[in-house]
Inverse folding.
DNA sequence: TTTATATTAGATAATAATTATCCACAAAAA
DNA sequence: TTTTTGTGGATAATTATTATCTAATATAAA
C-alpha cells in the first residue's frame, strides 16, 4: 500500500516508466476491498480513462506483481482477482453473491511448520481459501423462507 | 474410491447411463496419485480408447463431480486437476516440476472453527494449497550447484 | 527547452481451457 | 425385439489471458 510518490519512485527504480494508467490501476486496488478482477478494474476506470484497454490492465498487473505491489488471488473462479495488500492473508468467498473478503490475522505458522516437516518441501508460500454463505446472503435467504 | 460395480449402480441410480468411457475415466483417477488434468487423462486413455475426445472427458468429469465421486483441484495452473479421493485434504505443488501431492491427515478443524466464528459465514468448504520445491527437485538443484 | 530513444498504450489477433451444439448410435426400459 | 432416452465424438463457440504491432509518450541527455 504505497502513495503515488513512492509508486513512482519504485517503478522508475525497477526500470518501468510511470504512466497515468499504471498509477490509476494501482490506485483502484488501493481503494477497494472488493478484490476486483481485470474486468472490474477496467469498468471502474472506464469513465476516467475511456480509451484504456484491457490489455493495459493485464500488462500493468504483470508489472505490479513483479515489483511486489500486489498479490494475485485465485478463488477458483474463471478469472483472477487482485489485491493491493501484499501481506499474506487468507480469503473467503460467498458462494451466493461471490464477494471475496479478507480473513486477516489468521495464524498459518503452525500449519506451515507442520507441512514443511512432513513433506520435506522447501516451502515458498501457501493459499488458504474458505467458502460459504455470507451473513447478508443468509439474512436474505431467511427473509424469503420465513 | 469405488469399484466398477458400485460406480455402475451409482450412475444408474442418479439417472446417468453407464458407458465404458465413464468407467475408464473414473478408473484412471482411482489408479493415480498424480492429480491429472483433463489432458493427462486423455493421454492416458488414448491407447485404449483412440476415438475418445476431450469433450467426453469434460462431460464425464462434470457427472463424476455431480455424484460426488471426484473432487476438483485448482492449484493456480491454467487447467484444473481431478482427484478420486473426495475426503477433504490439502495439496502441495512443486514450483519446479509442477507435481501435485497430497497432504493427508492435516487437521483443519481449529482453523475452520476460528474462521466461522470470526466471519459469521455459513462455511461449506475450504482449500489449503502449499507451494514449494519438492525433495527430488531440491536434490537435483544441489547436484548442479555442488 | 529541445531532442533522442527506449517503452508504452491501445488496437488487434492469437492462444488455450472449457463449454455448447448436433446427430448417429448405444444403453436401458418396455 | 422395439422404443426411448441419453451419450460420444466431431465441431464450433466462448472467454480469460497473452502476444504482436505501431503511433504516441515518458524520460534523460543535450
Ligand atoms: Mn485480501
Ligand atoms: Mn489429493
Ligand atoms: Zn453473499
Ligand atoms: Zn519437483
Amino acid at each position: 500500500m504505497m502513495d503515488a510518490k513512492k509508486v513512482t519512485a519504485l517503478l522508475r527504480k525497477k526500470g518501468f516508466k510511470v504512466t497515468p494508467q499504471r498509477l490509476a490501476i494501482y490506485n483502484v486496488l488501493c481503494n477497494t476491498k472488493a478484490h476486483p478482477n481485470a474486468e472490474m478494474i477496467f469498468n471502474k476506470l472506464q469513465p476516467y480513462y475511456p480509451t484504456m484497454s484491457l490489455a493495459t490492465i493485464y500488462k500493468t498487473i504483470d508489472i505490479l506483481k513483479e515489483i511486489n505491489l500486489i498479490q494475485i488471488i485465485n478463488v477458483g473462479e474463471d478469472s483472477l482477482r487482485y489485491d493491493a495488500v501484499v501481506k499474506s492473508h487468507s480469503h473467503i468467498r460467498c458462494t451466493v453473491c461471490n464477494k471475496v473478503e479478507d480473513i486477516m490475522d489468521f495464524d498459518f505458522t503452525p500449519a506451515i511448520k507442520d507441512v514443511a516437516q512432513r513433506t520435506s518441501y522447501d516451502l515458498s508460500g501457501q493459499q488458504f481459501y474458505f467458502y460459504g454463505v455470507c451473513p447478508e446472503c443468509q439474512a436474505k435467504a431467511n427473509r424469503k423462507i420465513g
Notes: DSSP finds six helices and five strands in chain A. Chain A has two domains: 1-86, 87-146. The first helix of chain A runs from residue 4 to 13. The beta strands of chain A are 71-73, 81-83, 90-94, 100-103, 122-133.
